[in-house]
Amino acid sequence: MFENLIEILKKNPRKIVYTEGTDARILESADRLKKGGAVAVFCSGSFNYVMNRNVTFKSSSNYARSIAMFVAMYCWNLLFSNLMMAWIPGLLGWPTMAVKIVTMGMQAVWGFLLCRYVIFK
C-alpha cells in the first residue's frame, strides 16, 4: 500500500511556494523542511492517526482531544527514541540495532495501550 503511494508521490512531486522566496528566513526554513523530511513525518503521523481512529479502534471520541493526545504521544516517541539512540549505546555498550529494536518494542506496547485505553476510548 505504501509502496504505491511513495511511487505516486515520487512521480508527481509537489512544491511548497513561499511568497517571500528571497527572504533569508524563508530560504532557511525551506531548506530545513527539505532536509528534515518534515512533510513525510506529518503525512506519516496523519495517516497513522486516521487509520488508528477510524479502522483499528473505530473511535468516536472527541476529535480535538484525541488529536492533541496523539500528537503528544508522537512527540514523546520522537524524543524518547532520539534520547535512547544517543545515550544507551554509549552507556551500556549495546549495539545500535539492539537499542533500536528495544525502543521500537517499547513504543509499540505503550502506543497500543495509550491508543486503546486513553486516546481513542
Q: How would you describe what is shown here?
A:
The chain has five helices and no strands. The protein has helices at residues 2-11, 24-36, 38-56, 63-92, 96-119. The protein is globular and about 45 Å long. With 121 residues, it is an all-alpha fold.
SSE topology string: HHHHH
Compute the separation of the termini in Å.
27 Å
Unreliable stretches covering 5 or more consecutive residues = none
Give me the number of helical elements.
Answer: 5
Which word captures the global form?
globular
* Rg from Cα: 18 Å
Number of strands: 0
Portion of residues in beta strands equals: under 5%
Helix/sheet category: mainly alpha
Quaternary organisation? single chain
Q: How is the main sheet built?
A: none
Helix content: over 70%
**What's the mean pLDDT score?**
83
